[in-house]
Amino acid sequence: MKPSVDVSIEEVRDYWGTYPADFLTTLKPGTPAFFETVRHERYQAHEPFLKEYVRFEDSKGLHVLEVGCGLGSDAYTFSSSGAHYTGIDLAPLNVSMTKKHLEYAGLPGTVLEMNAEQMTFADASFDLVYSHGVIHHSPDTEAIVAEIWRVLKPGGKALIMVYHQHSFRYYIDIMVLRRLGILVLALPGGTAIVEAFTKGRSEAVSEYKQRFLEEGFKILKSDSFLSINTDLAHNPLSKVFTRRSAKDLFQKFEGISFRTAYMDWRRFPVLRSLKTLDRFLGRLIGWFLFIQVRKPI
């Protein structure tokens, strides 16, 4: 789904440079303990399926490009698995963090500040292009996919995660519960009610309340409402994809396959604790849509 909102690449860069993904710890940023905690939160607490889905160990000896390196957790895992790792990111903060992450671990890798819509790599440079939760935030996702095609070697593979439209998170959480939450915020005492439901995340609630005061009920318009509810209230742009729209996006590639995961039960801790159910539902209506494709030889 391609939103009609007009967002610049600079707005996207500034947002993710201010609010990096996976910044889930209060430890001092950029320290070894910080990076260790970030990896634990990513692979153990929030995405225990990720190593199974990505199979980092299979990247040994491959030239791997990560589009959107974030804080460098996957850079660490690719490099420690023996990949020849290159990572790019729009945001200077993420580039510096990933460099530190690899440096503290004593791992090799190249990390560059770069717009994935206009990569500077030579044609056919990489065996694997990997991107986790990045290309759906781009104003021109199609340009990134064209660049992935260009920089992949013939026979090379891409593994890309995008947000999944046919998911619990999209249809129930965002389009129903969060819209109801905005309406509740308009009521006397509504802020306290929403804070109770969101487990006391008062800062996040105040951000949405401010957006509501600024925009009124126009905030419920689907394009902008999607963007501010996939990450934080300042997020300028998010898109969601179905399997069909993903096939259209990657139509030049072959061998396309899909897997879904991640239910995001943060407001439903009892359900989150039921790991077998969580995994089963994640494979049916998960928020993360993993797309694997191959460039023809």
Would you spell out the secondary-structure blueprint of this structure?
Layout: H1 9-18, H2 32-46, H3 50-54, E1 63-67, H4 73-80, E2 84-89, H5 92-105, E3 110-113, E4 126-132, H6 141-151, E5 152-163, H7 168-185, H8 190-197, H9 202-215, H10 222-230, H11 243-249, E6 254-261, H12 269-273, H13 275-285, E7 288-294
Parallel strand pairs: 1-2, 1-4, 2-3, 4-5
Antiparallel strand pairs: 5-7, 6-7
Helix pairs in contact: 4-5, 7-8, 7-10
Quick structural overview:
The protein has 297 residues and is α/β, with parallel strands linked by helices. The protein is 45% helix and 16% strand.
Characterization of this structure:
This protein has 297 residues and is an alpha/beta fold. The chain has two domains: 9-166 and 240-294, Vaccinia Virus protein VP39 (Rossmann fold); 168-230, no CATH class. Helix content is 45%, strand content 16%. The protein contains 13 helices and seven strands. It has helices spanning 9-18, 32-46, 50-54, 73-80, 92-105, 141-151, 168-185, 190-197, 202-215, 222-230, 243-249, 269-273, 275-285, and strands spanning 63-67, 84-89, 110-113, 126-132, 152-163, 254-261, 288-294. A seven-stranded mixed sheet has the order 3-2-1-4-5-7-6, sandwiched between helices. Helix 4 (73-80) packs parallel to helix 5 (92-105), helix 7 runs antiparallel to helix 8 (190-197) and helix 7 crosses helix 10. It starts with 8 loop residues before the first helix and ends with a strand. The mean pLDDT is 90.
